[in-house]
Amino acid sequence: MTELVKLTIDGYEVEVPAGTTILEAAKKLNIKIPTLCYREGLEPYGACRVCVVEIEGRPRLEPACATPVAPGMKVKTRSARVRRARRMILELLLSNGHQDCTTCEKAEDCELRQLAYELGVREIRFEGERYNYPIDTSSPSIVFDPNRCILCGRCVRTCREVQSVEAIKLTDRGRNTRVMTFFDWGLGNVECTACGQCVLACPTGALRERNDIEEVWKALEDPDKFVVVQTAPAIRAALGEEFNLPPGTSVTGKMAAALRRLGFDRVFDTQFGADLTIVEEAHELIERIQKGGKLPMTTSCSPAWVKYFEHFFPEVLEHMSTCKSPQQMFGAVAKTYYAEKLGIKPEDMVVVSIMPCTAKKFEAKRPEMKASGVYDVDVVLTTREFARMVKEAGIDFASLPEEEFDEPLGISTGAAVIFGVTGGVMEAALRTAYEIVTGKPLEKVEFKQVRGFEGIRTASIDFNGTQVRVAVAHGLANARVLMEEVRDGRSPYHFIEVMACPGGCLGGGGQPIPTDMEIRKKRAACLYSEDERKVVRKSHENPAIKKLYEEYLGRPGSEKAHHLLHTTYTSRGRY
Amino acid sequence: MKILLKRIEKKDYRGTLEEYLQEGGYEALRKTLEMEPSGVIAEVKRSGLVGRGGAGFPTGLKWELTAKVPDSPKYVVCNADEGEPGTFKDRIIMERDPHLLLEGMMICGYAIGARQGYIYVRGEYTESYRRLEAAIQEARERHLLGEKIQGTDFSFDIYLYKGAGAYVCGEETALLDSLEGKRGEARLRPPYPATSGFRGKPTVVNNVETLSCIPAIILNGGEWYSKIGSEGSPGTKLYCLSGDVRNPGVYELPTDVTLEELVSEYGRGVEGGAKAALTGGISGGLLTPEQFKVTLDYKSMLKAGTGLGSGAIIMLNQRRCMVDVALRCLEFFEHESCGKCAPCREGTKRARELLQKIRRGNGDSASLELLLELQRVMYDTCICGLGQSALNVTKACIERFKGEFEEHLRGRCVVGVCGHD
Hints:
The structure holds two protein chains of two kinds.
Chain A: E1 4-9, E2 12-17, H1 22-28, E3 52-55, E4 62-63, E5 74-76, H2 80-94, H3 111-118, E6 142-144, H4 154-162, E7 169-171, E8 178-180, H5 197-201, E9 207-209, H6 213-221, E10 226-231, H7 252-262, E11 266-269, H8 270-291, E12 297-298, H9 303-312, H10 326-342, E13 349-355, H11 359-364, E14 379-382, H12 383-392, H13 414-417, H14 424-438, E15 456-463, E16 466-474, H15 476-487, E17 495-499, H16 517-533, H17 543-553, H18 559-565
Parallel strand pairs in A: 1-5, 10-11, 10-13, 12-17, 13-14, 16-17
Antiparallel strand pairs in A: 1-2, 3-4, 3-5, 6-9, 7-8, 15-16
Helix pairs in contact in A: 8-10, 8-14
Chain B: H1 17-22, H2 27-33, H3 37-47, H4 59-68, E1 74-80, H5 90-96, H6 98-112, E2 114-121, H7 126-141, E3 157-162, H8 172-179, E4 203-207, H9 208-220, H10 222-226, E5 236-243, E6 249-254, H11 259-266, E7 274-279, E8 285-287, H12 298-303, E9 312-317, H13 322-336, H14 342-360, H15 365-381, H16 385-389, H17 392-400, H18 402-409
Parallel strand pairs in B: 1-2, 1-4, 2-3, 5-9
Antiparallel strand pairs in B: 5-6, 7-8, 7-9
């Protein structure tokens, strides 16, 4: 049993386990100590000093995020001395030119702006100095503006601790300190996976997604273009947050309505692509198991995970499923099968994706993703960009009616919904693979063994006497653990699901800010309940998918399917 | 009374192992190896020795805290980064009597139960590095370092590490990060190095001079040492006297020497009349002539509103402009801030900008107030000593030479340093 420690904060007594920080102890008393460099899930860093508090008997103020409680401690969180220090630190930071809030992409989400307001900073007494660093636009996914960086290190620590990528580091010192890629080559030219977790972590506008909204407006206004849109599963569980709805509110119907009002010619669903992915991937897995192919096989639908794999484990690339991701499968089918049906040339169709992800922007631009001869997907918007577009268009999102997706590429199953949560692809694949292998219908469609938020989860599933061993990881640092086993030839699994982002796509780098553990859990619950509400819950039973195979592809893994729906990988190495 | 420079000041002494042994070197180690480790620590505690790097923490207590942590391996790390402006004492020991330091480290290793010691040598100190390297080689050859030293159960070795020129790496936790191959940034405390230091293991970090005091304490006893110099921070100290003084240098004197004695008797006075003395390099503060009777020990200096720090005294004469002095000190800190904590990284920059403005004659009285407020906030909130003390000199200059600052606000530099009359 952990020993309990009693202390006083602002005159109120509180008892917490030894080792608790003052910040956490204060939360128990509903006292919110302001923070900037602190971020849930990361090691305390204590660099911004905004969370300083006064502790009786100590000569200096101490950071609440990194100071453990002690018996009898008397803490003041809002004394004049504390408030003076916090305000001045904000003044110091703001005097570096962080005052262009009106034109900042992340103005709504900016913690610095909000703190300055909440802590009563109403004038900046320092003249300060404006930096004029070049903005890094080398990545198709993420833009880094060092001029808006306050050096809190949240991005750097996320990249290292959560993702084990370390594409960015703090370099130089003092006033010249900067967040930088290897030799300042830029995010597009190093081992950055484009996952965008740094964007979620960044408390200012320094890190943001590349804004592609104008491209979508342009396509919508072009009378010669047929513009279709697809939305990833995780969007419907999170988009509402951008319009002040509580986290976990399902907005599927309103989202479809909003897209229609923006002027898309067809409102489709990436979940159609997800069902298709499962049918192809389940067949690939079965074939690898039955014909002695490379095992374990890993999923390939998370583009940051794919890029990570290519950078860090290029020697074992053949372990990755050759299936394209749902986004790309959707685009390939839309510009061939569907375009042919409509009699439209692929180059006259524009496929727009709404994704919870920054890496999807990168994925769409991979040169091999051109099944029809032109890009499968033309423009990718994050959840946040989509919300901004809705706001710009003056659509009152919360009051919209619930509408349906268009057919046929808007038809999907419950298995596809859960693609948005860690373990979901695994579960969906198991639902299909089990029935194909055993020839028997599943009694219970849920595989709860692979659900949850543990970093790595493993299970062994009985397929009619054959034990299929599976593992699920989310967050690339967790994936690394499984991949080192694969690289060293000691991985005991048949099938591994990896999602680059903590929680899966629902916690993706393109999702609403803030994204924390509480919010991730609510989004997950939303997706699981949407799965339960679906009549059809297995991908291979999706009638639109069945029709696609009948009319166009033949069978899973056919030559045509391979041409359209499968891909190749690039050995990238680290630099 | 010479303890540290005893041999160095002898004619023709070069500090080889042979010479060191002839002068009674490694006798303290021999004696140590016959003692209980706890007895060694008790002796150091009895001596009253406090750290000579600047913070003045009781050395024996530091060793005891580290020894008591039930974790291993333990490490001895010697801070030889000597980066404080005006400080040049450690290099004398390293260049001219390196075995004195090695012996001190070995005794510390024995006392706390460490098998490895590291010396983090300032990057620019190539000669120190070379001499230490040779000394370590000599000691290994004589089996004073290595496995089962001199047939005892004590095994210990010492390794050298070269700094890369960052002042902040003289701060003990940044030094440890740098030693681990990381970017040198001050760590959060707790945990302190005593429990979680080098590679997360219990570590004593001591300055060169501190460790070099140890052999004499072991040989002559803690009580003997405690009676030298000032009560409260006893012993002798290496004072680095520089600036506008006629005879600058390193002087070893008991800690009850007054600043006046040091400056007039040893430094032969200040050319052009003393205006102020920067103490503890440029991070302690300053004293004005009416305070020069203060004794140069840690406690008295604190009482006088400044710090002894590393023992560096920089004398300023009447031709120095205190606005200019404050600005130059600030430029140093701005350049050397590691950049981790916001108040230091941004605060040193803002303070430099304000002082520049004042120096140019464009300041206003609000900027003086702002500087003083900034000093209080930086003292209160910065992670490490660098930021906490970066504005000490600025504050002292404003408070003690207010008239000079006000003249600058009116566009006049009385001594004519700042270019506008």
